Amino acid sequence: MVNENKNVVIEVEERHFLFKCVPMDQMDKITHCLAEFVGTASLLVLSCMTCMEGLGSEIIPIQAAFGGGLTVLVIVSTFGGITHCHINPAVTLAAAICRYVSVPIAICYMISQILGAIAGFALLRAVTPSELHYKGNSTQLWCLTLPNERIDPIHGFAIEAIITTLLIWLCCALWDARNSRWQDSVSMKFGFTVIVMNLAAGQLTGSSMNPARSLAPALIANYWTDQWIYWAGPITGSVFASLCYKYIFHRNAPKECCTVATLKAELIDKLME
């Protein structure tokens, strides 16, 4: 008789060091959603803080434009290594259409973004005096995205759809494996793109491009006039841009493009499935 010693390898599921009851892959998903929540809340706090008109000085368009764009730059720099850092349901919708995130994850992201936007705007209102919450001497809540008086709703819808299309094309280009070698300045690309869109459309529609960003002030102010523009426009632009890029512009990347950045992105996507 020969006794053979067999080594039995038991795989132990990795768990979070603090929350032992939660498997690590589930904890990662929770962390991603939490980062979307905090990132979108930060977007509302900082971008709305840059356009407060009750301090006595008039807000010039370039101030609001750069404030919004640089806010996006900071948030993407901060949370880009934790999550996909969409902070925008229109971006998440495009990512789902292009199959960069799964549908369940996309839904969780969108819920996190909407709740984060509401929480962020509510927090900003809570920590600032009530006399700063309105535009000049009017009773209109500040930070509402509204079309200019000379812009009718249909034109407003078209403008929001166009600028969102351009934003989503940037997203699709950065997700494209062919651009994996140029990922170091992603936050700057997003930030300055938002600045350009704000300069172009800020005085026309408020340059929202983000349903969650528009929803939070409208919900808290209970002001719904023309707010459909800021859902229909970005969603239309997102669907059009993502489908256009997916079926017209996209190509399979050559092997030399499969750099560390590409492999990292693929690993993140697998973990999110």
UniProtKB/TrEMBL annotation:
Gene Ontology annotations for the cellular component aspect, listed alphabetically: plasma membrane
Family annotation (Pfam families): MIP (PF00230)
InterPro entries, per the entry: Aquaporin-like, Aquaporin_transptr, MIP, MIP_CS
Protein localization: Membrane
Topological category with respect to the lipid bilayer: Multi-pass membrane protein
Family: Belongs to the MIP/aquaporin (TC 1.A.8) family.
Protein name: Aquaporin
Record organism: Hermetia illucens
Species lineage: Eukaryota, Metazoa, Ecdysozoa, Arthropoda, Hexapoda
